[in-house]
Amino acid sequence: DAKTTQPPSMDCAEGRAANLPCNHSTISGNEYVYWYRQIHSQGPQYIIHGLKNNETNEMASLIITEDRKSSTLILPHATLRDTAVYYCIVRVRRNQGGKLIFGQGTELSVKP
Amino acid sequence: DTGVSQNPRHKITKRGQNVTFRCDPISEHNRLYWYRQTLGQGPEFLTYFQNEAQLEKSRLLSDRFSAERPKGSFSTLEIQRTEQGDSAMYLCASSLWGEQPQHFGDGTRLSIL
């Protein structure tokens, strides 16, 4: 299973873009990168996922490098409600059930 | 509410008692997952079902743990003879097959006295 490396914590000013990096240098060709976040006392919330191309949805953008060894989750205009632990996960391939292997994540603090 | 539902939200019990948790997945999701999360750590995979078949179990799932999904809809996780180390948040997630994302419930927090 490909491992991911994330900084343990980051700060961001409210209204600014939050850029959360993730390294996954051992990712295999058909493994996806998923991002989840977890607000205290709640279950993880799905944000976005991608394989090769950059992806954007109503919550965030995902930028994956061409060699796929790293990615960045971008929250374009962070609010106080975005304060959470963000997990970058490489998902085990389909025929292995697709379980998620969580690391320690990045604790993002959005400050006024 | 069409999300994943878990009951109860909190469970306090004495060491040695049996406990059972229930998970109702999103309708028509054929995959269902159980995870456990201790304080300060990310969730850890326990087991998963495709429809009613339990296809994978983590070595974290000792003999005291059993999970079922009898009709391929809701699932139960039972812990027998609870121990202090079982104190954790138990999370359930569901998904369609393939690369579709898993959606999590808000978990059942178990506290062992």
Protein described:
The complex is a heterodimer of chains A (112) and B (113). Chain A has strands at residues 9-13, 18-23, 33-38, 45-50, 55-56, 61-64, 70-75, 84-90, 106-111. With 112 residues, chain A is mainly β. In chain A, the strands form two sheets. Chain A has a five-stranded mixed sheet, with no helix packed on it. In chain A, strand 3 (33-38) and strand 4 form a beta hairpin. Chain A starts with 8 loop residues before the first strand and ends with a strand. The mean pLDDT of chain A is 92. Helices cover 0% and strands 50% of the residues of chain B. Chain B contains no helices and eleven strands. Chain B has strands spanning 5-7, 10-13, 19-24, 31-37, 44-50, 53-57, 65-68, 75-79, 88-95, 103-104, 108-112. In chain B, strands 2, 4, 5, 6, 9, 10 and 11 form a seven-stranded mixed sheet that branches. The interface between A and B is medium-sized, with 24 and 26 residues.
**Biggest interface, chains and residue tallies:** A-B, 24 and 26 residues
What sequence of helices (H) and strands (E) makes up the elements of chain A?
EEEEEEEEE
Helix-strand pattern of chain B? EEEEEEEEEEE
- Average per-residue pLDDT of chain B, rounded, comes to 94
Strand composition percent of chain B: over 45%
Query: For this entry, what is the oligomeric state of its chains?
Result: heterodimer
Extended strand count of chain A: 9
Mean pLDDT of chain A: 92
Distance between the termini of chain B: 33 Å
SSE topology:
The complex is a heterodimer of chains A (112) and B (113).
Chain A: E1 9-13, E2 18-23, E3 33-38, E4 45-50, E5 55-56, E6 61-64, E7 70-75, E8 84-90, E9 106-111
Parallel strand pairs in A: 1-9
Antiparallel strand pairs in A: 2-7, 3-4, 3-8, 5-6, 6-7, 8-9
Chain B: E1 5-7, E2 10-13, E3 19-24, E4 31-37, E5 44-50, E6 53-57, E7 65-68, E8 75-79, E9 88-95, E10 103-104, E11 108-112
